[in-house]
Design goal:
Layout: H1 2-21, H2 27-51, H3 63-75
């Protein structure tokens, strides 16, 4: 998965760089496809890869987590 994300990332950056440095009728479309690839493919895959084995409740501000934070603050 990590290498697939890297491949898509490099392809998107390559598309953006190619569209930026080459001045032809496809240059704006290449930049747009690169940005869309980053937004719709790379970022969601990266987010899924980083969060797939994590518990979302650990990162939410629930009453229990707020109480734990207050207890840690009192200890220090």
């Amino acid at each position: 998965m990590k290498y697939l994300i890297l491949l898509f990332f490099l392809a998107a950056l390559g598309s953006i760089a190619t569209g930026y440095f080459l001045e032809n009728e496809w240059s704006q479309k290449l930049i747009g496809f690169g940005v869309a690839g980053l937004f719709f493919i790379v970022f969601p895959l990266f987010s899924y890869y980083r969060w797939k084995d994590k518990n979302v409740k650990d990162y939410m501000l629930t009453k229990e987590n707020l109480d734990k934070m207050r207890e840690r603050e009192k200890e220090s």
